[in-house]
Amino acid sequence: VLRELAPGMTAQLWGYNGSSPGPTIEVVEGDRVRLFVTNKLPEHTAVHWHGQRLPSGMDGVGGLTQPQIPVGKTFVYEFEARRPGTFMYHPHADEMVQMAMGMMGFWITHPKAKHPLIDEVDRDFCFLLNAYDIDPGSATPKIMTMLDFNLWCWNSRVFPGIDSLPVRLGDRVRIRVGNLTMTNHPIHMHGHEFVVAGTDGGWTNPAARWPEVTADIAVGQMRALEFSATELGDWAFH
Questions:
Q1: Nearest to residue 193, comparing CAs of 214, 164, 167?
Q2: What is the pLDDT of residues 183-238, one digit of tens each?
Q3: Could you point out which of 9, 12, 112, 224 has its C-alpha 20 to 30 Å from the C-alpha of 158?
C-alpha cells in the first residue's frame, strides 16, 4: 500500500483491501457477518476482531484460536454482530511488525432499533490513532521501534494533511477515536465540552457521564466523544 501521509510525504505500508487503515466495516446489530481474509503478505497473518463478542474460534489469534493464515491462503471468519458499538480489527500474528506496517481498521455495529444508551447524532466521525517510525528519505516504517516514533497519525495522515470536521451550528456530533499506537493519547477539544458516551465495552449510562474537554485514550482503547456544536468558528481538536 502506497499511502500519502501528508502532501509530499509518502509511506510504503501494509493494509487491508489496498488501504491503511483498512475499510471501516459497518453492520447492524444481529447481522450474520462472513469475512474472507486472503493473505497476500510475505508472511503468515490472522485478524483479531478487537472488542467483539464472538466464538473463540473466530477471535483471530494465530496459534491459539486458529492456525496462522499461510501466504496465499484464505481464512473465513463468520460470526454474529451481537452488540452495537465501535470496535477495531488488527493482526494477532507477528503483531509488532504487521501493526507497525499499518495493518488496522475500524468496525462499527449500528443498533437495530432505538437504543436507550445511544443518542442520535447529526455527524459521526471515526479516527484511528496510529504511529510510524520512518527515516528521512525512506518510505518504509522501521518495525522494531517501541516508543521513539516520529510520525503520529490520524487514519495514517499527519497534520496538515488531515481533513477538517465540518459541522453545522447546533449539530449533535460524535467522534469515535481508537488508539492502536504504543502510548496513551490525551485527546483535547477547544471551544466545547464533550461526554464519553461509549467505550470498547459498550455505551455508557447517561447518568454516569460528566463534561470533559480532554479524554485520555489508552493503548488499545476506543472512546466515543459526543457534544453539541454550539459555538461558531474554527476549533482545534488534538
A1: 214
A2: 999 999 999 999 999 999 999 999 999 999 999 999 999 999 999 999 999 999 99
A3: 224
Closest CA to 112 of 171, 231, 27, 206: 27
CA 137 to chain centre: 28
Question: In terms of Cα–Cα distance, which of 155, 144, 124 is closest to 4?
Answer: 155
What are the angstrom distances between the C-alpha of 159 and each of 4, 7, 72, 111, 153?
12, 10, 36, 33, 8
Is the pLDDT at 7 greater than 90? The verdict is: no
Determine the average pLDDT of the residues in 75-90. 97
Q: Up-side HSE of residue 122: CA atoms within 13 Å toward CB?
A: 12
Which DSSP string corresponds to 118-163?
----SEEEEEEEEEE---TT--S--SS-SS--SEEEETTB-TTSSP
- 45 burial (CB, 10 Å; 0-12 / 13-18 / 19+) is buried
- 176 in Cβ contact with 198 (< 8 Å): yes
Q: What is the pLDDT of residue 160?
A: 86
Q: Please count the other Cβ atoms lying within 10 Å of the Cβ belonging to residue 31.
A: 15
Task: Tell me the CB-side half-sphere exposure of residue 128, using CA atoms within 13 A.
Answer: 25
Percent of the chain residues topping a pLDDT of 70: 100
Q: What would the mean pLDDT of 52-79 be, rounded to a whole number? A: 97
Write the DSSP symbol of residue 237. Answer: B
Q: Give which of 237, 196, 190 is closest to 215, Cα–Cα.
A: 196
Rounded Cα–Cα distance for residues 178 and 85 (Å): 12
